[in-house]
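Record type: ASSEMBLY
Status: queued
Input:
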Amino acid sequence: MNIVVLVKQVPDTYSERRLAGADHALDRESADAVLDEVNERAVEEALQITEAQGGEVTVVCMGPDRATDAIRKALSMGADKAVHLSDGALGGTDAPATARALAKVIGTVEDVDLVIAGNEATDGRVGAVPAMVAEVLGWPQLTFARKVETDGSSVKAERETDAGIVNVEAGLPAVVSVTEKINEPRYPSFKGIMAAKKKPVSVLSLADVGIEVGEVGLAGAASQVVASAPKPPKAAGVKVTDEGEGGVAVAGFLAGEKLV
Amino acid sequence: MAEVLVLVDHVDAEVKKVTFELLTAARRLGEPSAVVVGEPGTAGKLTESLAAYGAAKVYSAESAEAAGFLVTPQVDVLSGLVGSVSPAAVLVPATVDGKEIAGRLALRLGSGLLSEVVDLDGDGVGAHSLFGGAYDAKARITKGTPVITVLPGAIEAEAAEGAAAEEAVEVPAQDASKAARITGRRPVEAGDRPELTEASIVVSGGRGVGSAESFEVVEKLADSMGAAVGASRAAVDSGYYPHQFQVGQTGKTVSPQLYIALGISGAIQHRAGMQTSKRIVAVNKDPEAPIFEIADFGVVGDLFTVAPQLTEEITKRNG
Ligand SMILES: Cc1cc2nc3c(=O)[nH]c(=O)nc-3n(C[C@H](O)[C@H](O)[C@H](O)COP(=O)(O)OP(=O)(O)OC[C@H]3O[C@@H](n4cnc5c(N)ncnc54)[C@H](O)[C@@H]3O)c2cc1C
Ligand SMILES: Nc1ncnc2c1ncn2[C@@H]1O[C@H](COP(=O)(O)O)[C@@H](O)[C@H]1O
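Status: finished
Output:
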């Protein structure tokens, strides 16, 4: 069972995020960058499957040079190897072009049975890249899974959305995305961290995977941000200490605002 | 006038409110055509309400398979229609299914995608609210037929008369080697409370609520105001309340008239899902809790005394 895990490096949600420059692109330099938490869960799920059934876990990441840190984290958890698509021309790539590029990179990994991704990245929150990768590959998508089971030839998942739970099933190869409720990711052990330093990471350029420069980046984007600005901060509100009348005070405030 | 395709969100023979919001937005760009994908007999039950929000046409794409495969039937139907009617745009609700349908459609058409717009003008420029409302941005599509997902609850639905002329279209046969088969469904039990993302008041509980049993305090306050109940991730992770009610970065984004946070510290990831609420009330024991930075009215105190007292006050006022 060979599994590709799609991982993304994102600005830490604990740090301040902003858009910058004439292109209104995400300012990735200003914030701390981390492996997106849901991707740790995707790695964990892949490891659990290969630990039970054998096979290899390959991490695939598209991102700038410093995304190496996110890749190493995934390797230190136990993934076997990684492919990193890194090219100066990638900055500003939109979701459709990201999906096309990721599908090309997946194509460089041999005998893939399953692709596991996070359901939604915490930076863009497109929540559709895994589905779009499935579209390009022509594979079934089993996304937003809170539970995944596979026997090596087919895969079943419990999809959890606003609408409730939907059970889905398909043959392999397939694309799965997992939600934050799927598992608790393991912490990398000291041994794992040391071993990760020696694991193979192949860094590919656009030319290596057969993508034209004009297909990605701002040049290839099919949408354009025309304006951006931080929201003005809110004025401070009223704060009272409860001395037995706190609930009454709230009711008074709500009545004054015509909210009750 | 060019057609604007609107994918209809429906459940149990009823049109979901977000569809009316999309039909309203679609009228700014052209003439709305509602697209219903479902099992045979679905569209007929929906046309009346679609007409009431200005749908000029209703494309009914019905087959037994349409409800038996995940998102691909909708993508197939919409891409077929884009080919035959050359619409000015395709609008899809920014729900989990909708975002995936829109993403695949944009890819198949070679079109640009605007994700989760909170407003849309007549020139097709969409407004986005980023990083949990901390940032505003505007964007437009530069290639192909625009595919746009619209955040539920962001645009106010306005009624308008439409002819809702029904036209049947085919659902292409599904290829089981390329699509996932749906083998079971367990819809969320609606209950009596409004839906989290549609509610005008949301009352949420955090780790401070302390247990699943004590969430009753949160529910009672919510019920006294006809509100929806939400929860922080810490409350969900501790098993106090089900996941579907999580508000925040990785949960639901809500923007009600009033948000009441009980025993929630106000971590940045929680704020990301609620800070665009019109009014925020917080109750927390800790005077330093960051939730007070964004609260219009904060009470430093024990939620187990403040919330029941508030419930009683509201019940009195209503009674
Ligand atoms: C990638 C990522 C995504 C995340 N996504 C989300 C998300 O979607 N939603 C989310 O909520 N969080 C999310 N988090 C978690 C977030 O960082 C916080 O851990 C979480 O919001 C804390 O929840 P809480 O406020 O209920 O708990 P705590 O931070 O533990 O706060 C509990 C509060 O209750 C108060 N309290 C205790 N007892 C009482 C009482 N009797 N009366 C009054 N007050 C009392 C305490 O003073 C305290 O302030 C995410 C984190 C990460 C890293
Ligand atoms: N640049 C990228 N490199 C690798 N994986 C990605 C990238 N962008 C998105 N993904 C994957 O797609 C998931 C959902 O992202 P999104 O659709 O952007 O919200 C992420 O959790 C990743 O698994």
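Annotation: Residues 303-318 of chain B form the longest helix (16 residues).
Annotation: The CA atoms of residues 211 and 240 of chain B lie 5 Å apart.
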